[in-house]
Amino acid sequence: MKVVIVGGGFGGLAVARGLKDAPVEVALVDRRNFHLFQPLLYQVATGGLSPANIAAPLRSILRGQKNVHVLLAEATGIDAENKRLLLNGDALDYDVLVLATGSRHHYFGHPEWEAHAPGLKTIEDALEIRRRLLLAFETAERLGPGDASKPWMTFVVVGGGPTGVELAGAIAEMARHTLQPEFTSIQPTYARVILLEALDRVLPPYPPSLSEAARRSLQELGVEVRTGVTVRGIDADGVTVSTTEASERIASKTVLWAAGVVATPTGAAFSALLGAEADRAGRALVQPDLTVLGHPEVFVIGDLASVEQGGNPLPAVAPVAMQEGDFIARAIRKRIEGKAPGRFKYRSLGMLATIGRSKAVADFGFFRLSGFPAWAAWLGVHILKLARFENRLLVLVQWAWNYWTRNRSARLITGRDSPPDPPGR
Fold this sequence. Notes:
Layout: E1 2-6, H1 10-18, E2 25-30, E3 34-36, H2 41-45, E4 55-57, H3 58-61, E5 68-72, E6 75-79, E7 84-87, E8 90-93, E9 96-99, E10 103-105, H4 123-143, E11 154-158, H5 162-178, E12 192-197, H6 208-220, E13 223-227, E14 230-235, E15 238-242, E16 247-251, E17 254-257, E18 261-263, H7 265-273, E19 284-285, E20 291-292, E21 295-300, E22 305-306, E23 308-309, E24 312-313, H8 318-336, E25 351-356, E26 359-363, E27 368-370, H9 372-385, H10 389-405
Parallel strand pairs: 1-2, 1-9, 2-5, 9-21, 11-12, 11-17, 12-13, 19-22
Antiparallel strand pairs: 3-4, 6-7, 7-8, 10-18, 14-15, 15-16, 20-21, 23-24, 25-26, 26-27
Helix pairs in contact: 1-8
């Protein structure tokens, strides 16, 4: 049996690993040669970790599996009738196809906002955000105290989910602790960090008590938390927002997007080719066994799949993708044995979000934590989920150093763009 997996993220990697020693030939296709631990991207974006700390080559991860062939290629189409995956300049035959191409930023009908408010899904996104953050402080230093530097010292994060909360907290910590002793003309502690959320509380999927604990922790860090706020426009000079009462213009040179995701164009196109219906985020509506209706040989998982459980779609998070990948690996083994795969059922192991140093919230269903215990749990879970022991060791050492010194050592401004010229100079 030939199994072709498109995407080396959490779901695709789980399928490949789950088929170790199975009597199948596995081809893992990805445009990138590495697996990325996306939950820690915000730490790369704020200088706490380097990209290599949270990524590992796919070939290195899977080097012990003799039945896996890793291909660096871009999938361009599907010949469903002949069971062939089309690549750029080539094609692969398959008996089972797994689509796990993930998601991208969702700007809710305003693609023009992306140029002014980058999201956080790739290493390139993280490095661009890091560049913008650090350049903002450098430009403010050249301008000196006063009205001209205020937009450069104002940072707006759109979206109060886990990514937005973690990013806003990390920016506030970087400004108030790491950068504070390093500038002479400005006081980084005076930086404004504003978190915008359209709903009535941050971390909406969490219980209200934990949402409130997260809000308090953010405010203790100096983050301005604004809920019930709708973004109406984003440009190079700031954000226009509205509430039920009034509109407001926030002058900011650094706006970051963490408000939603949508299926990747490639994944959405493949699902459409197979005749799969999609939800509002472009995710394919799949069968209970994660296959596409009319195509039992095609599985769709992770951020690309819309799976309902308990009347609600499962969230687009790593644990869901990993459990779906494990399920598919078992389903393929059952097919080989002539057995039915059964239905996928997600078992929540809890939700965690960190707000800053020693501050986090955790919901494990039967009990909830906030503060230092939740933060310790968050550290442990994320260390264990990293793909390789080497990454775990590097991140653990880096986090220990950051904790005791408050120093974010990966604060490098990279890219070819030169520093902006301050107005009036």
